Structures are given as C-alpha cells and as structure tokens.
Amino acid sequence: AGGPPSNGTTAAQTTVAGATGATTKRRVEDRGAFDKRLRFSVRQTESAYRYRDIVVKKQDGFTHILLSTKSSENNTLNPEVMKEIQGAMATAASDDSKLVLLSAVGSVFCCGLDFLSFIRRLTDDRKKESVRMSDSLRTFVNTFIQFKKPVVAAVNGPALGLGAAILPLCDIVWANEKAWFQTPLTYGQTPDACSSFTFPRIMGVASANELLLSGRKLTAQEACSKGLVSQVLWPGTFTQEVLRIKELVAVDAAVLQESKALVRDTSRGALEQANERECEALKRVWGSSQGTDSILQYLQRRTELY
C-alpha cells in the first residue's frame, strides 16, 4: 500500500500553508494595529507629561492644539502657557503635520492675557515684569507670523483681547455662533498681536478703531461680516463641522505651504515690525502706575464681560 496521492499531499500542504500565512498576516496586522495604538498612547502620555496648560493631539495629517489652562482662568495666556503653545507649534513645524488646528477645551476660547497673575508680578517689580511679559508676547506672536504651515482656529466661545487679536494671524477661522469677540483695550492695554496692522487692513480703519479703542463687542456673525471670521458654524454641530479640516489635510503638503507663502510672505516684514512697535508700547504702558491702575480697574469690571 502506497502513501496518499501526491496531489492530496499537495492540497493538504497548501491548506496548512494558507492557514499559516493567514495567521501570520493576521498577527502582523494585529501587531501593526497594536503598535499604532501604542504609539498614540505614548504620544498622549507624552503630551500630558510635557504640557500642563494645553492638550496636544497628533492626528492623521495634522496637530490639534487645545487650550486647557490649569495655571490660569478662562484659557488666559501667561508666559508659561505661551511657551507651551510655541513648543507644540515647533514640533508641528518639523514633523509630518500638514497644518495645525487651534481650539480650546470648555465653553471659552481664550480671554486674552492672564492679567490676574500679571498684576501680582507687576506689584512686586513693575519694570522687570513689564519687560518679561512684553518679551514673551513678542516671541509668541512671531511664532504665528513665521509659521509656514496653515493654522486653522476653531473658536468655540468668547475670544477676548489677545484671544481675538491673534485670529488674523491664523489662516482660517471657524467660529461657533455662540462665540463673541472683544478687545477691551480701554482697560490698560494698547493693541497686541499685530492688531494695529491687521484689523484696519481686514475691516477698514473706522471699524478697527471702534473695536480697538472703544472695546465694542462683536457677535460671531458680525465678526464674519467684517472679515475676522471665515465662517460661522451651528453650535449643535460645531465639533463635527470642524472635522471638515480633513478635506484640507487631503491636499498636498507642499501645495498648502506654497499657497500660504504666496498669501502671507508679502506682509511678513510689516507684521514683525507691527509686533515690535506694539510690544514696545505695551512695555511703556505696563511700566507706568497708570497702566497698573487700569489693569486693576479691568479686573474689577471683568465680571461684566462674561
């Protein structure tokens, strides 16, 4: 009696080989999925470890930076928070992110500079602290001016002071219909984030002066009609609508950067000069007793702004 037919052996071997191959492939796929989850987990853990006042999520094709301040109230910006945002943007500039999405956790986008901690420091050493804050602000704003990849801002709620002034340095601004915008500069602060240059250019001198000098409050629709906001989104679907950023991510990275450069590069020098002038003016204002008094008055009246 001979062995089984050779074609039977071949069929069995093929079946075993096929099963083994499928198992191996499945293991590789499972391992790949596990590695992807692990890398994501490590990135999230690294983000939590590296940052206290922001959350950074490395998504597929873009970096999502969310303001979530623990060292200040209402996502206000102090030198420490600004440094964290700069660090996250520096990472996004050098990795494979095609763009940056800037948003916030909670119902407030950004209420400008952290005057509460600033006034305490000013009381201790007015000259030193006014220089420190103006230097921090200069570097922070220059980070946006010089950033080569597109920045999309998703404004989920109120944007005050620096929180509103920084928006023209972003490339696309989507706003929740419930958001509102105000630059309360009558309370101890001259324009910042190049708003003395960008606001008149965007909305005309008359409208810019009304906003910068009188502190007029703009609704999201008004901000959109004046060119400060690209589009107003419905509150109930705001988070889902922001996901349309994936359409931008689908565009070639080089095309995005070249397109931004064509729009932005002609005004970069003027923006840097405006930033320098504004920071020098703020240093003078913050270094004066009148400036300190104005900030105190602003803090006392701040509850009326919310």
Structural summary, described in words:
This protein is an alpha/beta fold and 306 residues long. It has one domain (47-305): 2-enoyl-CoA Hydratase, Chain A, domain 1 (Alpha-Beta Complex). The chain is 57% helix and 12% strand. It is built from 13 helices and 9 strands. The strands form 2 sheets. The protein has a 6-stranded mixed β-sheet. A hairpin with a 3-residue loop joins strand 1 and strand 2 (62-67). Helix 3 packs antiparallel against helix 13. The protein is globular.
Summarize it:
With 306 residues, the chain is of the alpha/beta class. 57% of the residues lie in helices and 12% in strands. A hairpin with a 3-residue loop joins strand 1 (54-58) and strand 2.
Topology of helices and strands:
Layout: H1 6-50, E1 54-58, E2 62-67, H2 79-94, E3 99-104, H3 115-124, H4 126-146, E4 151-155, E5 159-160, H5 162-165, E6 172-176, E7 180-182, H6 195-203, H7 205-214, E8 218-219, H8 220-225, E9 231-233, H9 238-242, H10 245-249, H11 253-264, H12 268-286, H13 289-301
Parallel strand pairs: 2-3, 3-4, 4-6, 5-7, 6-9
Antiparallel strand pairs: 1-2, 7-8
